[in-house]
Amino acid sequence: MPIRYYAVEPTLDRLREYYEANYKNTQRVIHAHEDFFDSLESVERITFIGCSLGAVDMDYFQKLRDSVNEDVTWEFSYHSTGDLKRIYRLCKGLGINNGSFSTFAL
């Protein structure tokens, strides 16, 4: 029906615009900051404070992991046991050994 088309189509357009405006293109951001990642070779410790460790940021974590030496110490803050579970899952996924990271409560 034409009336339905005119009611639905603008709504779909607004949803597309919202998605495009808020979509986090991690690969574009990583590529734009290659110099930063290349400069991390001598980093000895990485500390995360208040990071949600969400799936949307996994590309960043992987790039960070690939950019630092194997003997880097990783430190993560946490608020809850749910945070601890996400930290352990992240470290396991990135191949960070239990002895290479620590946690601290905030």
The helix content is: 40-55%
Strand order of the largest sheet: 1-2-3
Low-confidence stretches: none
How is the main sheet built? 3 strands, parallel
**What structural class is derived from the secondary structure elements?**
alpha/beta
What is Rg? 19 Å
Query: Strand percentage, roughly?
Result: 5-15%
Whole-number count of domains: 1
DSSP strand tally:
3
| Helix count, DSSP H or I runs of 4 or more residues | 5
**What's the SSE pattern?**
HHHEHEHE
N-to-C CA distance: 57 Å
Describe the overall structure.
With 106 residues, the protein is of the alpha/beta class. The protein has helices spanning 2-22, 26-32, 34-38, 58-67, 81-94; strands at residues 45-48, 73-78, 101-105. The longest helix is centred in the first third of the chain and has 21 residues, at 2-22.
Topology, pairings included?
Blueprint: H1 2-22, H2 26-32, H3 34-38, E1 45-48, H4 58-67, E2 73-78, H5 81-94, E3 101-105
Parallel strand pairs: 1-2, 2-3
